[in-house]
Design a protein that fits this description.
Blueprint (H helix, E strand, L loop, with lengths): L1 H29 L1 H31 L3 H29 L6 H29 L1
Length: 130
Amino acid sequence: SIECIGALMRKMFGLCCMACYVASMFIVIWNIERVDAVLQIHLEMQELEQFKHEIEKLNAHIFSRGKNRVSMIEDIVGCLHGKKHIVDEFVKTMFGNRVPLSQYEELLKQLQGDHQMQQEPRQSLIQLRS
């Protein structure tokens, strides 16, 4: 009878352990979306850290001199202001109206043309720096 009680206790202990395991698995499956979101954020943070390190390397390489840094920032600001002006004008003229696809294509051509015009001075600037 003592052997039966010992076997019953082992079986009860195993049953309790299995119940705890099933409960923990149920909780994990129930909250898998949270775990997935945390893992996704962790991966995005790693990618951002890698991007930051690449930018820091680029800054150390390209912006080693102060004058180059200021002039490049001014070039970037000028490019962004030009694009902002083009988009602002498009929004002002098309606000409240139905905009056909051809207008969007024209906006794209304007933005690409502005980009190419901005690239030409920058290319000559890069050649002068080299």
